[in-house]
Amino acid sequence: MQLAIALSLLTLQPPVGFVSHYPMIPEGADVYGESGATVALVRAPWELIQPSEDEWLPEVIDEQLAWAEAEDVRLIYVIEAGPAHCANWVRELVREAGQTMVGADGGAASDPSIFSPVYVARMDDFVRRVVTEIHQRDTNGRVIAYNNGCEWWYPSDLTFSELDRAAFEREMAHRYGSVRAAREAWGLQPEGAVERPPVVFDGAGAVDSFGQLVDLRARVDASWCTPYEEALAVEPGTAYTFSAQVRTEDDLSGGALLQIAWLKPGSQPPIAITDSERVRTGGEWRTVSVTAEPSAGADRAWLHLKSQLRGTVEFRNVAFRSASDGATNLAPPIPAAGGKEEGLWGFSPWAAGVEEALVSERGDGALRTRYSPTLSDSPSARWVEDWFDFTGNAVAEFIGHVADVIRDAAPGAPIVTYLTFSFAAPFNWDYSYQHNIHPWRVFSARHYEGLGMQLAAADGDFHHITAGVDMVRHQGEPWLIDLQDFTAGVWIGSQAMTRTTLSGIASGARGVVYYCWWGTPDYDFYNVWPDGELEAMLSAGRDLLARCEGGAPAVDVAILHPMTVPYAGRGEPDPGRFMLLYKALRRLGLGIRIVASPSEVPASMPFLTLADVPADLPAQVRRFTEKGNTPPMFKFLGPPESVEALAARLAERLGAPVPEGPETFPWISSSGERSQLPVE
């Protein structure tokens, strides 16, 4: 009976609400229902419910169910059992068994590998037990769905364990028929085991380009730094600016940056790090700076002029100044030509793939670092592609496995995914490969009642939301989970967030869960806007969900997503041209389906690729993060004339007029009538 109620509520009551950390964070919990929310996404934390192997503390479930009853909302339970939420006692067992994630240097990470038998067995036990507990205690049918975990990522640079390698070998032996055949396909000598290709990510999150996979030997981390023992004294609450002129040459990968390591009395490792942006200047001198206040408890600043570049880096005109005394340069000088001053700036080669290829020089008022390894036998593209195909599918299968365990404990229970890093898929796909999260793979691996994706706008640009929905809508019913504006946070205001909400629904989303009610600065919706604005946003979302019930978005054109494993300079350098193509079609008010392969295009549907974007149309983008601590998001900087010009060309080709007024979305009602849904 409970499950029948849950399934009907998923369709009959428009699901709109927030991630709630109740009862761990109780702020505003007593007025949650007054917002107009119909659902709340609550957490079943492994560490809290099962803090040790012999303890079981389910009281938090009773508190959440009683709260839902009092606020008259339905619950979606996120079962927190993925690697990022592994209970500490299980982490210790995994560490002792040598089954954690592992970095390229062989160092053990804190999270378990998804291939760890020790972890998976205990995860399965917890999931079964806690879902059974929730199901039995929910006597009033408050729970309408489960999330099969959240905080999903499996960082590529932490997949160097023997467990990863062995699983890859099994898969490749099956795919190619033998280990020998796999190695030959990759251009390796036939004898030997299947290995993980020695590549790592460089520059993911860079401001003006995608991160790239590079040969492990291309990675370097070195710095000119002030002596640790003579770190500069700083005053709490005072802002300091660290600046230098930087020039890079022969820059094949990586970049240069400035770094402040904050130290507290008696500490050995820094208590916090503040970095500037990482740059490559192409032979030109460029001023780079970073301004920050000392971290709490810090009394000294240890300055680093860092090279992470395969190429040559020079630093000059270094300064470290306080806001209270900008005239005084606290940084030590750089030796002039022939200068041999000791103790001013020392060179620290923290890591280099080929140590003998790293050279440092000082003099002429500049500090230089050169790293020029010869890499003639880098991994083949096919080897790298096979690896990322394997890891992407393995993560999708693991997420699906968690859903299987939930269904075993509560047969027929609706499952709505909480797929972190989905926001990366449309326009930030280097993150997708960096963290091995691809929504289309996850939703191909299992059937889900709701395709819940972490999606976010960027300074009000809701195309990050709608494009995410356009990528997976054909696989099921999308949900907007963790909905936010990553770049501006809640400070973007209710008008922009309402547009973002309605655009997601108009493109096909069937549920909305914002992040969050209270608990994360810059992203808390409770009590942030003037009275009535939050309620109005939720009311608008409920109304549009109800209006769209039984209908579906019209789909007029398919476009090919240009994502590819970013190795050896392949693929687009940034998402600018793809964003331009998408925005031009949205300017025409057309319904879009984004496909990963031409074979997915429905018969007779118009099909466009980046080849349809003229090279003479500029498409400027840059990554930003202005609020919170979320990954930087690409923003389309235009110019707007490019969108208008491409829209005009495509309108002629597709036989579609260029509409006037704000953007609208095409919708087919349950009776088959087509209309344009406004989101303003």
Brief summary:
With about 675 residues, the protein is α/β, with parallel strands linked by helices. The protein contains 16 helices and 30 strands.
Give an overview of the whole structure:
It is a single chain. Helices cover 29% and strands 25% of the residues. Helix 12 links the parallel strand 20 and strand 21 (478-485). It is built from 16 helices and 30 strands. The two termini are 40 Å apart. It has 680 residues and is an alpha/beta fold. The protein has a seven-stranded parallel β-sheet with strand order 6-3-2-1-22-21-20. Strands 9, 10, 12, 13, 15 and 17 form a six-stranded antiparallel β-sheet that branches. The longest helix is centred in the middle third of the chain and has 29 residues, at 381-409. The chain folds into three domains: 2-152 and 391-551, TIM Barrel; 202-371, Jelly Rolls; 557-678, no CATH class. Helix 8 (381-409) packs across helix 11 (439-445).
- CATH level 1 class label of the largest domain: Alpha Beta
Question: What is the mean predicted local confidence, pLDDT?
Answer: 95
For the termini, the CA-CA separation is: 40 Å
Q: What is the gyration radius calculated from CA atoms?
A: 27 Å
Number of domains: 3
Helix content: 25-40%
* Secondary-structure class: alpha/beta
For the record, the CATH architecture of the largest domain stands as Alpha-Beta Barrel
Describe the biggest sheet? Answer: 7 strands, parallel
Low-confidence region ranges: none
Strand content: 25-35%
